[in-house]
Amino acid sequence: MNKKLLSIILALFMCFAFFSCTKDDAEKLPAPTYPMTAEYLQESIDGLKDGYVVNDNTFYDNYTGELKGIVLGIAEKSAPEFEQAAVITNTLKNERGFGLTCISGTVGALSGEYSYAGKSYTPETSEKVIKFATKLFGGFSDEEAVYKKFQKEFSKKNTGIKEVTSEILKDKAYVNYVWRSEIDGIDCEIVFKKMSNQDTMYLYSIIFMTDREVFDEYSNGGRK
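Structure (tokenized):
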């Protein structure tokens, strides 16, 4: 094979590789700037359901005083002091972290549905909430990427069960069902809780991280 033909083949290969990577990146869900702003979350919720307000809070690094993340509380406009859920986003070493916690289990804003006291999302009814969180974080191949794998694996694969006891709650111990998997290079964790005196488990949290080791190091007090 002569050098000219070899050069052409290599050039074509490089072009193919470049456009393949560009195409893959373009097809991924867009990722918002982190930490996520209250305005961005408000717009995202308004696209699903009116009548909810986002309360903006921030937290800082105790050592440097730098802004590390924003805690965005979600509540009905009629009762803004009673937050139904919290969205926490932060960045560490250019890695993104996201956490959605259902405080009361009545988060209608996250699925575009009306909510009422006592309603909670079960593994069978949490599809819209998981898809909403997937779109909020971005970087996945599509909004169904997480839910499809969760639905296929939960309680069968990649799911841990941990019983939690409390001296305060006494007989009100609960069990955590923790599903964890890596999708499109993103660490995913979805937790459901089941109280000892209840028959049904309910959605507690959805967590996404681009690099779990970075956030685990920070949680353990590392400052490298």
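The chain has one domain: 31-219. The helical segments are 3-27, 38-46, 127-137, 145-153, 212-219.
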